[in-house]
Amino acid sequence: DYYSAISELERLLDVEAFIVEKFDQYLEQAQKDQENIKKFLKQVEDLQIDRGDLEDYFGNPLNAFKTIRRLVHDWKFNVFDPVFDTSNFEAYKTSLGDSLDKIKFKGPNQEDLHGATRGLLRLQNIYNLPTNRLANGVLLPEEKNQLGTSLSASDCFELGKNLCEIKEYSYGSEWLLEARKRMHGQPLGFISPNVSDVQILEHLSPAFNGLGNLKLAHKLNNEILDKESGHEEALKNKIVYEGQLAKERSLSPRKVNLPQLTEREKKESFQLYKRVCQGELRQSPREQRNLKCSLSHQGVPYYRLSPFKVEQLNLDPYVAYVHEVLRDSEMELIMEKGKGHMERSKVGQSVNSTTSEIRTSQNTWLWYDANPWLSQIKQRLEDVTGLSTETAEPLQLVNYGIGGQYEPHYDFMEDDGHAVFGWKGNRLLTALFYLNDVSLGGATAFPYLRLAVPPVKGSLLIWYNLHRSMHKDFRTKHAGCPVLKGSKWICNEWFHVGAQEFRRPCGLKSDEGKFLDLEHK
Ligand SMILES: O=C(O)CCC(=O)C(=O)O
Ligand SMILES: [Fe+2]
């Protein structure tokens, strides 16, 4: 799909440019044809004016021949063929189709449009963005168009319509009202669908009905009928609304089913996630005061000269940035090698994994065996963490698209990883490279630690998912906040428990059951 990653959207623009080129060629030919037709018609007109006395005219054997020839051949060749015979168009269509087939191109579809709609809805929801401000490209409290673009009436209409289709009547009606406001006083240009007042009302009226505002729904429905008295749908709705209104007058008002928060959204960790992403919830100075920055060589001679720059972010569980770990050229290479292999990210384990709104991104895996150029990076990961990569997973490259996010989750497996990872055991440490700076949003959030880590290009974020006794540490629930502006590229490495026995021996006391209250919150 096109909505879950920026990399796919980039490809879309290339293909669009290609289609423009093809149609330019087509139009050029069509224009030539049209000029020919005009010339021909002019000639015929002149001849018709000149014809004078018909007896005389056809008395001339050449005129008779020319006229017949014109009617048999010229009209067909100059007018009928170019206009009615679509073979010219068919030829372009075939050539365009073949070219698109060759690059296995399938354009975006309704599902992509819905995905993009849900992405914007998520941004509004998580970052509390008012509709009219988002429509004007304003993201932060200051009145500034950070997005450098705004939405047209038809954009707002499309959003409102899609939102109402998924029963998001509250936001849906706001977008439709925004479309209405914008429609007056703004040329719609070529952008389709060109919206009319009636079209907006057709969705707005049922939306207010969905919200339980029957009176307004009825009023708006009447507005449709004022403009188009024979509007079938509105006539039907009028009867329904009036019936319901009468019932409401005599009985108690009916109950409406407003969209409920999903079970996921109701969770405490989700509510904390929102507040951490917004920057509303953060560590207190007291919590921060023991955090240090340091230069570290981890006992490796090379790094005594060029130490790692460590910035602690949380001590227990341990979370830290390591800055300037990757070079620009390395990051470019990683993204380059991954592009073209990206697939929609899934959640869940192996055979049971599915795509989900919980994780809207695309990813691919880079195996060390197949990519020997990664060996230096692999070595550096060992040096930074002091852990063995013997049991590590391949590198996972991830790209987030419009409103792309990863809702709160644990990186470790429920069953200590035995089913999926066998002797290698659970995911001990997550090492996450930020491959680019994100303009706005996209922080890695730890709801229980009140910590939002903004992406810093070239830096590595590390944290231990397990206690020292290798039991699951439920405080490490974390998430990728929705990307508000820009794109987000990261790359994950998961170090496992196996093979670390001499590098990070486990503790002597069991931590099993610690912070268990957080497990399902
Ligand atoms: O995108 C992020 O910052 C977090 C990603 C993450 O948690 C994961 O891929 O497991
Ligand atoms: Fe994660």
Q: Quick gist of this model?
A:
Catalyzes the post-translational formation of 4-hydroxyproline in -Xaa-Pro-Gly- sequences in collagens and other proteins. This protein is α+β, with helices and mostly antiparallel strands.
Question: What would your notes on this structure say?
Answer:
- With 521 residues, this protein is an alpha+beta fold.
- The protein folds into three domains: 6-102; 110-250, Tetratricopeptide repeat domain (Serine Threonine Protein Phosphatase 5, Tetratricopeptide repeat); 285-518, Jelly Rolls.
- Helix content is 46%, strand content 13%.
- Strands 1-2-3-12-8-15-6-5-4 form a nine-stranded antiparallel beta sheet, covered by helices on one side. The chain has a four-stranded antiparallel beta sheet with strand order 7-13-10-11, covered by helices on one side.
- A hairpin with a 4-residue loop joins strand 10 and strand 11 (451-453).
- Helix 1 (6-50) runs antiparallel to helix 3 (61-84), helix 9 packs antiparallel against helix 10 and helix 10 packs antiparallel against helix 11 (232-250).
- The longest helix has 45 residues, at 6-50.
- The mean pLDDT is 86.
- The structure holds 2-oxoglutaric acid and fe (ii) ion.
- Pfam families: 2OG-FeII_Oxy_3 (PF13640), P4Ha_N (PF08336), TPR_P4H (PF23558).
